[in-house]
Structures are given as C-alpha cells and as structure tokens.
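We were asked to recover a plausible sequence for a given structure. The inputs and outputs are reproduced exactly as logged, with field labels preserved.

PROBLEM: sequence recovery
POSITIONS: 254
GIVEN STRUCTURE:
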C-alpha cells in the first residue's frame, strides 16, 4: 500500500509529462499501480474533486473556518484518526458524558467541516466518540501519524497557522474543551488578624506534548491572556483580567 503523499507525488510527475515507465523508475512504484491511479476517479488527486477544500481549492477555502479551528483544538487534545478500508479514514473525538453541550458543539463543528458526510456517535463507558468518515481527514489534519501525539513532533502547516491566527479564540476553546478545565481555587489570608478563606477562578490546560502546549500558549499570547507554567505539562491562567477574557470567549464546559 502506498500512502497519500506518495500517490500525489507520482501523479504530479505524470502531469508534468513523464511516462509511467519513467515515474516508476524514479519512485520505485510499479507501473500497474501508477496506471490504476490514473484511471480511477480519486477525490484525493488534485483538481479532480471539489469536495475537499484542502485538495482542490485554496488552502483557506473553508465554508466555516472557525468550525475547523475549533475542531483542530479538539483533535489535538482528544482526537485521533484511524484508517479503514479503501483509503477511508475515521476521525474520532472522545467527549465525556459529563459535558453534553461539548458533545453537541463537537458534532456541529465536525458536520460543518464535512457537510456531505454523516456524523455519528458511539457510546462507550463514560464517554461518547463523535465520529465521521472521509478520505480527506489526513488532508485536514496533517498532524496525523503513527504513535501517540506526545511522542512525536506536532507542528501546524502554514495554512493552519493562518487560520489559527484568524480565529485564535476558537482554537483556545477547542483545546480547553478537550484537555482543559475551569476550576475554583481557594487560599487563606490574614485580614484584621483573622484567617479568612478566599476563592478565585482559574483555567488549567494539561497535555503531555510540549509542542501542543506551545501551540496553546502561543494562541493565548495572540489574544492577550496572561499564563503561567505550573509544571511541565500544566498551564495555568489565574490573573483576574485574563480569567475574565477566558470566561467571555471560552467559559466552563457544559
């Protein structure tokens, strides 16, 4: 089996005028495979289908770009892509049953990104997998790869960076909804000689990947939210003005 990028590279050489034999010698791919890719109507081949804005249109041509950015945040936290038969991929986002509003928001974002594909939910103990199949999920999420996210490099493509820069709050919201929370902390202070309890809200984001943490803090910098690193995998937002910003644009899970 050849991966998506290998197929595209081979067909690009064919489009440039190289023969099947020449492309086979350059790439090591059999002529039979190249011939089958030419004759099959593949939606992943550049220019053959308008169903994938990443394959056939300008990189930022999403009908609802904010929905994609939110879904990107969810994917980086609690999402993964698995390959099924015939180059079909399933995107799955794990959402806790505790937050039914999050499940709805995830479903709506996924449907907005792939309006022609069915979004469905699979119930598991304590959570639901919001899922959708498409041949193009690796196009939308090039961060997909073997192994756990925190064990490999995670970077955004330039077109993703542009979208995150345009919709940074949606990215922050997706990451908080996946691997973050809003809690109430408390401490004690001595006031007029008496110890008094003082409560204050705080946002936390927890992830094992230093790359994903860097993407999160970079987005916080874009929107003017002050943050601190509690430890190697926890980011804290506790300053009153920054918490107020987070409350206005993100809010607690629901």
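RECOVERED SEQUENCE:
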């Amino acid at each position: 089996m050849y991966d998506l990028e290998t197929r595209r590279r081979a067909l690009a050489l064919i489009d440039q005028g190289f023969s099947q034999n020449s492309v086979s010698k350059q790439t090591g791919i059999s002529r039979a495979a190249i011939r089958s890719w030419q004759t099959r109507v593949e939606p992943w081949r550049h220019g053959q289908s308008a169903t994938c804005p990443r394959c056939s249109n300008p990189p930022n041509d999403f009908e609802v770009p904010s929905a994609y950015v939110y879904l990107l945040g969810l994917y980086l936290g609690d999402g993964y892509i698995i390959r099924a038969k015939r180059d079909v991929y399933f995107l799955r986002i794990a959402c806790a049953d505790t937050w039914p509003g999050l499940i709805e928001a995830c479903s709506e974002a996924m449907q907005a990104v792939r309006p022609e594909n069915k979004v469905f939910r699979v119930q598991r103990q304590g959570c639901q997998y919001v899922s959708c199949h498409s041949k193009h999920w690796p196009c939308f999420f090039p961060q997909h790869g073997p192994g756990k996210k925190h064990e490999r490099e995670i970077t955004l493509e330039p077109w993703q960076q542009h979208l995150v820069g345009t919709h940074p709050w949606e990215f922050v919201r997706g990451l908080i909804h996946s691997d973050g929370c809003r809690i109430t902390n408390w401490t004690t202070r001595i006031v007029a000689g008496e110890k008094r309890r003082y409560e204050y809200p705080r946002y936390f984001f927890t992830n094992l990947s230093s790359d994903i943490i860097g993407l999160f803090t970079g987005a916080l910098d874009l929107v003017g939210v002050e943050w601190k690193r509690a430890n190697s995998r926890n980011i804290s937002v506790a300053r009153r003005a920054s918490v107020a910003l987070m409350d206005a644009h993100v809010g607690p899970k629901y």
